[in-house]
Design goal:
The structure holds 2 protein chains of 2 kinds. Chain A has 4 helices and no strands. Chain A has helices at 3-17, 43-57, 67-70, 74-86. The radius of gyration of chain B is 19 Å and the shape is globular. Chain B contains 11 helices and 12 strands. The chains are: A mainly alpha, B alpha/beta.
Chain lengths: 87, 312
């Protein structure tokens, strides 16, 4: 899957998984900060995203300290998926 | 010290329930727009029963003009079934791995009382009773004793249960719901206080519940209350088309003409006596000729409760 296609799919999955009923997937910027500022997600959402990565892409985050970098934005998640899928 | 019922907050099936509203044997709540009660983050995370329960609680507090109660007490027979069902289904589908945290966090029975406390930022006494068909009665007794013992002035107390497809199927299969029952749900919350508000019409006089006893024992208890309080109305759980033998016996023994059958309005559920408690309060408000109302609730001839409200 190409990067652009993956980012669009991820936005849809984030909205569905986190029940962001007031947000349209296309409103989420590729590089927009997901936690704290930006989309304003919190720690429970982070756990939901970990589950999303495992369920949908078969990927685990082995080092919890990598979490903030991986989940910074849609782009960083997409890059993590592509890099680790290739591996 | 008297225990006054200063307000009601309720989300329930339409009180004029008819055949069209009973869908596949279930009578479900008419729900409000919750956006006025929760921020968007909370709203997307909590399940329907937490919305129903917490919103009813907020309504009761608002109606009593009490900002911060001294205690929050919730009765729920089966708790947060939707989240429990979601979590258990994922447990099976995902072979006990990669489980979503949100349904797990909110699947516990005390999620409703906890959410109310979070909304209010209330650090006071917080308790949940989950004693099947005695859940509301247990919560109410706790509230009553807190006020009687002067441990609290304003107590928020309520009963809440939901019906979902999974539990409806299970309840039907194990016989918890009888063929003549209409499954119901709802949330009824109250602010009980040791001081009477200007809109208060009722006082909680007595609450008693007994398991595994004969109806004769209940009739004796009801007669004692009848002689002490001159009861002039009785609220029982049966549907008027299928009056349970216990209800027939009690009505005949007390010879009270003014009888209200309430489960035709809210359906059968573990905390339906909270709906009856609200109905009794409304009766005392709307019919000034009625001074003492007895609520008799029973489930499966084993869980009996008698609650007495008096006009004040």
């Amino acid at each position: 899957m190409e990067l652009e296609e993956l980012k669009q799919k991820l936005k849809q999955q984030i909205v569905t998984q986190l029940k962001l009923n007031e947000v349209k997937p296309e409103e989420i910027g590729d590089d927009e900060q997901l936690f704290g500022k930006g989309l304003g997600l919190d720690s429970i959402d982070a756990l939901e995203l970990v589950v999303l990565l495992e369920e949908e892409y078969g990927l685990k985050i082995n080092h919890s300290e990598d979490g903030p970098k991986i989940f910074y934005s849609v782009s960083t998640i997409a890059n993590f998926i592509l890099e680790n899928k290739k591996a | 010290m008297a225990v006054y019922i200063n307000s009601i907050g309720q989300i329930a099936p339409n009180s004029l329930a008819n055949e069209e509203q009973i869908i596949a044997g279930k009578l479900t709540c008419i729900e409000p727009d919750y956006s006025a009660f929760f921020d968007s983050r909370t709203l997307r995370r909590i399940s329907r029963i937490i919305k129903i329960g917490t919103t009813s609680a907020m309504m009761a507090l608002k109606n009593a003009t009490v900002e911060m109660p001294d205690a929050i007490i919730v009765g729920t027979g089966f708790g947060c079934q939707e989240d429990t069902s979601l979590f258990l289904r994922k447990l099976i589908t995902n072979k006990e791995e990669t489980l979503n945290p949100t349904p797990f966090i909110f699947s516990t029975h005390n999620s409703i009382a906890s959410q109310i406390a979070l909304q209010l930022k209330c650090h006071a006494y917080n308790s949940t009773y989950s004693h099947r068909n005695f859940s509301f009665e247990s919560a109410l007794l706790d509230a009553y004793l807190l006020i009687k013992d002067d441990d609290a002035q304003h107590v928020l107390v309520g009963g809440v249960d939901e019906i979902i497809d999974d539990s409806f199927d299970l309840f039907t299969r194990i016989g918890y719901l009888k063929p003549t029952d209409i499954a119901g749900e709802g949330a009824s919350f109250f602010v009980l206080s040791d001081v009477k508000s200007k809109d208060c019409v009722a006082e909680l006089k007595s609450i008693e519940f007994v398991a595994n006893t004969e109806i004769a024992t209940i009739i004796d208890k009801a007669k004692t209350l009848y002689h002490e309080y001159s009861i002039d109305a009785i609220i029982v759980g049966s549907h008027p088309d299928h009056v349970h033998q216990n209800d027939q016996d009690l009505i005949a023994a007390l010879k009270i003409e003014n009888t209200i059958f309430y489960k035709q309005l809210c359906g059968e559920y573990a905390t339906s006596s909270a709906y009856a408690f609200a109905t009794a309060n409304t009766l005392l408000k709307e019919n000034k000729a009625v001074k003492n109302v007895l609520i008799y609730n029973q489930y499966a001839n084993s869980n009996h409760s008698l609650i007495l409200l008096s006009a004040c």
